[in-house]
TrEMBL record:
Family: Belongs to the CarA family.
Taxonomic classification: Bacteria, Pseudomonadati, Bacteroidota, Cytophagia, Cytophagales
NCBIfam families, per the entry: CPSaseIIsmall, PRK12838.1
Record flagged with keyword Isomerase: no
Organism: Raineya orbicola
Enzyme Commission code: 6.3.5.5
Descriptive protein name: Carbamoyl phosphate synthase small chain
Matches recorded under Pfam families: CPSase_sm_chain, GATase
């Protein structure tokens, strides 16, 4: 573990009482949230700005963080959405010709409290064994009683509705107005690169706030509907489930990613569950059971769809499975032009194995 003798101390306390000592980086302060880890070897800025991480403290499993700085084009949202960050070796200097600032400056400007010098291998092994739980980072008050009091004030992720907090407040347009296809996007915490991937396929979009009724989206006269990724517990989002039910009733083409996948399942009568510690990283193996081919995928989710309920359904088909734990990674309605995946085919910086799913959505709108 690297020592930072020039940095003030910081502490990370988990709700089960496990304590990690480290050094303060980012903004001086205190923050709480559900602790989770991402195994991606690169792309830390994309991780920090993914709205799906809202309410969470991210542990980077890559040993060195900050070495290539930050660049505005690599944002997935206007600003970071994480509640805190944990890493092992942190670099205050960076070396990349197009980088605009150091990660330290970036964290400070965006009020992100973080801790470095942590034994992240031990921390990740603990989360994998004990499961996801809340944690608190502080670089301003290291008193254990203070940290415990902050944890007691932090609600568990299960049951939290968070999408309305990260969704756009006003509808907006994205893409070329002269494009062939029009898609209404229900923004539950959409990543910017999803919109880019659709725009590259001749799609013009109107992006709507999370709680927009179908009647309002229909005024755009879309050829299809996209249900985005986002944070929180899908079971705490009856408004989105009802909207998707209505889209299914009108038989409009529908594509969902991540949280959108879970919402489609709920709208189809299939339940969801809180996972032990979730899937987050760039190297998760998934098998397309329709084609028999496998793909390496980028993932970020802490909730899943109940597989046994899909297997008992007469109108839902499993299309993709996770090769590590056999969880459901994709489904489609056999009676409606609707499908979804749990992972992120738009992943930036990668992988790109699953970009074909956007083409399948285009094909649905051509019928």
């Amino acid at each position: 573990m690297m020592k930072y003798t020039f940095l003030p101390p910081a502490r990370l306390l988990l709700e089960d009482g496990t304590l990690f000592e480290g050094f303060a980086i980012g903004k001086t302060g205190t923050t709480t949230g559900e602790i989770c880890f991402n195994t991606g070897m690169t792309g830390y800025q994309e991780i920090y700005t993914d709205p799906s991480y809202f309410g969470q403290i991210v542990v980077n499993t890559t040993a060195h963080i900050g070495i290539y700085g930050t660049y505005h084009e690599e944002q997935e949202a206007e600003k970071p959405t994480i509640r805190g960050m944990v890493c092992n070796a942190f670099s205050h200097i960076f070396s990349r010709h197009k980088a605009e600032k150091s990660l330290q400056s970036y964290l400070e400007e965006n009020n992100i409290v973080a801790i470095a010098g942590v034994d992240t291998r031990r921390l990740v092994q603990h989360i994998r064994t004990q499961g996801a739980m809340n944690g608190v980072i502080s670089s301003e008050n290291l008193d254990i009683d203070f940290l415990q009091s902050k944890l007691q004030e932090t609600p568990p992720m299960k049951g939290l509705e968070l999408s309305s907090q990260v969704s756009t407040k006003q509808p907006y347009f994205f893409g070329n107005p002269q494009a062939t296809y029009k898609v209404a996007v229900l923004d539950l915490g959409v990543k910017r690169n999803i919109l880019r991937c659709l725009a590259e396929r001749n799609v013009y979009m109107q992006v709507f706030p999370a709680k927009t009724p179908l009647s309002e989206m229909q005024k755009f006269n879309p050829d299809g509907y996209f249900i985005s990724n986002g944070p929180g517990d899908p079971a705490a989002m009856p408004y989105a489930v009802e909207t998707v039910k209505q889209i299914l009733e009108i038989n409009a083409p529908l594509f969902g990613i991540c949280l959108g996948h879970q919402i489609l399942a709920l709208a189809s009568g299939v339940g969801t569950h809180k996972m032990h510690h979730g899937h987050r990283g760039l190297n998760h193996p998934v098998k397309n059971v329709i084609t028999g081919k496998s793909e390496i995928t980028s993932q970020n989710h802490g909730f899943g769809v109940n597989r046994e309920e899909i297997e008992q359904s007469s109108h839902i088909q499993i299309t993709h499975i996770n090769l590590n734990d056999h969880s459901v990674e994709g489904l489609r309605r056999t009676d409606k032009p609707a499908f979804s995946v749990q992972y992120h085919p738009e992943a930036s910086p990668g992988t790109h194995d699953s970009r074909y799913l956007f083409d399948e959505f285009i094909s649905l709108m051509q019928k």
